[in-house]
Design a protein that fits this description.
The protein is α+β, with helices and mostly antiparallel strands. Helices cover 26% and strands 34% of the residues. The protein contains 7 helices and 10 strands. It has helices at residues 10-23, 36-43, 47-59, 88-94, 113-119, 166-174, 192-198; strands spanning 63-66, 70-73, 78-81, 99-110, 126-136, 139-149, 178-189, 205-215, 220-229, 233-236. The protein has a 6-stranded antiparallel β-sheet. A two-stranded antiparallel sheet has the order 1-2. Strands 3-10 form a two-stranded parallel sheet. Helix 1 packs across helix 3 (47-59). It is elongated. The relative contact order is 0.13. The model has no long low-confidence stretch (mean pLDDT 85).
């Protein structure tokens, strides 16, 4: 077999070197990097090359740039598993975070074709529709947009969603337990509306999780679109080779 080797650009090599120092703890979260002039002199590169490396690290979420102050090592991203149906509130509180919620939209809507198909209900059926900001230690990290059929959850609009887990409400108030889900994950850019609610810049990276939740009777009873801040959250996936497939 013939291998092709291509020299990495210098700025990529510098970024990888700094990333390694961050990952092993030599550079700590919140630590301010030395000035660009000092750092470029220490590495023996031009400031243009150094800035390319810093932009790459910033894009990867390893450093943050503060106007007029400099570059700082970013706080580690919060890990969330996608291979388990793990309610946000319970999962984050087990990890030691203080969770919070703020409902920004609550209304009834008629199901359009796309949502009706996902929930297997007639078009124009009544739906409860919510937007809710989720916070960790008082900082916004996720915008939830979710639908529940009114036929399954009559009177849901009377229940306070500000400080309770949605799944806990479904179980306690309606004896409906979400036991499985179909989920997808994709990268999107924040709209002006989303950026304002999450306190980020327009166009900032978000991770969009679409989810259809099934109850104990295997009925689709929830359709949700959760938007996570890309600078705060990362997803963990456990994957395995199928038994009948050889590696």
């Amino acid at each position: 077999m013939r291998y092709i080797s291509k020299q990495l650009p210098l700025y990529v090599q510098i970024a990888e070197g700094l990333a390694d120092r961050i990952e092993v703890g030599e550079l700590q979260p919140g630590q301010r990097l030395t000035s660009e002039r000092e750092l470029s002199d220490a590495l023996g590169v031009t400031r243009v090359t150094l800035r390319q490396a810093l932009h790459l690290l910033e894009a990867e979420g390893l450093i943050t740039r503060k106007q007029g102050s400099g570059n700082y090592v970013a706080e580690p991203k919060i890990e969330r598993k996608t291979t388990q149906l793990n309610p946000f509130t319970q999962g984050m509180e087990r990890s030691g975070f203080k969770t919070g919620a703020e409902v920004t939209l609550q209304e009834k809507r008629s199901a359009k074709i796309s949502v009706a198909n996902r929930l297997k209900i007639p078009v124009s059926s009544d739906l409860h529709y919510y937007h809710r900001i989720r916070t960790l230690n008082n900082a916004p990290v996720m915008l939830e947009k979710f639908y529940f059929p009114v036929s399954y959850f009559p009177g849901l609009e009377e229940i306070d969603f500000h400080n309770r887990s949605a799944y806990e409400i479904l179980k306690t108030e309606f004896n409906i337990v979400i036991t499985s889900a179909e989920q997808s994950l994709e990268a999107v850019a924040a709209s002006e509306y989303e950026a304002d609610l999450l306190r980020i810049s327009v166009g900032a990276p978000l991770l969009l999780e679409r989810r259809i939740g099934f109850d104990q009777h295997n009925r689709p009873v929830e359709y949700a679109k959760d938007l996570y801040r890309g600078d705060k959250i990362k997803f963990l996936l456990d994957t395995h080779i199928e038994k009948d497939i050889q590696p």
